Amino acid sequence: MSTPVIGVLALQGDVREHLIALAEADALARPVRRVEELAEVDALVIPGGESTTMSKLALLFGVMGPLRERVAAGMPVYGTCAGMIMLADKILDGREDQETVGGIDMTVRRNAFGRQNESFESGVVFTGLDEAPVHGVFIRAPWVEAVGAGVQVLAELPAADGPESRIVAVRQGNLLATSFHPELTGDHRVHAYFVRMAEEHLAAA
Question: pTM of the predicted model, to two decimals?
Fold first, then answer.
């Protein structure tokens, strides 16, 4: 099976940590800032950061349109935290002019778990990973308020203020998104899961 070349959108956010995690998961990883670099990768990670800033920079650098086209054509993409917001079709508590790449039929609420000083860590039971729970780092993290019929919920956390759970990881086709930052923990199983998605996409091409 071919080794996928996976880019990390390097406009803003924790790019270096994702590059390291992808390399540890046996992918060829490289930063992506320009349209020409996007064209050279088989898959892409959209990192955490600040979603409104990332959206503006994607438009400024001219990669928003080509990225939407690659997503529509089936390129595997993994978004963490702000990257989850970038992959959402609908956003709550975003700026009125905020644009997303879209692709996942979900509604995401920005900063749903609170501000920076309310960041926390938690074990996350992740469907498809049969080992111990993933170590999740939640920093000004979103959660998923609602999903469409084609979206698979991969992980949830119990709500602090009631009996319901908060959706923190989803997949729709070749698109994967998590509220949390696995790249910050040294546990690279979610990245390995995404690398397998990219490998399967390459093999089917």
Answer: 0.94
